[in-house]
TrEMBL record:
SUPFAM superfamilies: C-terminal domain of transcriptional repressors. The keyword Iron applies. InterPro entries: Fe-transptr_FeoA-like, FeoA, FeoA_core_dom, Transcriptional_repressor_C. Residues 7-78 form the Ferrous iron transporter FeoA-like domain. Keywords: Iron. It holds the Pfam family FeoA. This is Ferrous iron transport protein A.
Length: 78
């Protein structure tokens, strides 16, 4: 039931900030996301989304990053 209400970083509108609740997935994808400094409690500002949704450009801890759709779908926000 809680899964239906889970919102990912991909659902966040351009120009909005979201706080990371948790990361889905395991292995290399999760490690790559954490290596970029995106962990639980981090604020992520969505700067720009490409017309087809890939990549998504965000600002995290003062750094500008590009995320792929698959990475953004693995980041649950609140």
């Amino acid at each position: 039931m809680a899964e239906a209400q889970d919102r990912t970083l991909r659902d966040v509108a351009i120009g909005k900030t979201a706080t990371v609740r948790r990361l889905k997935g395991e292995g290399a994808l999760k490690r790559h996301i954490m290596d970029m400094g995106i962990t639980k409690g981090t604020s992520v500002f969505v700067r720009k989304v490409a017309p087809l949704g890939d990549p998504i450009e965000v600002t995290v801890r003062g750094y500008e990053l590009s995320l792929r759709k698959s990475e953004a779908e693995s980041i649950l926000v609140g």
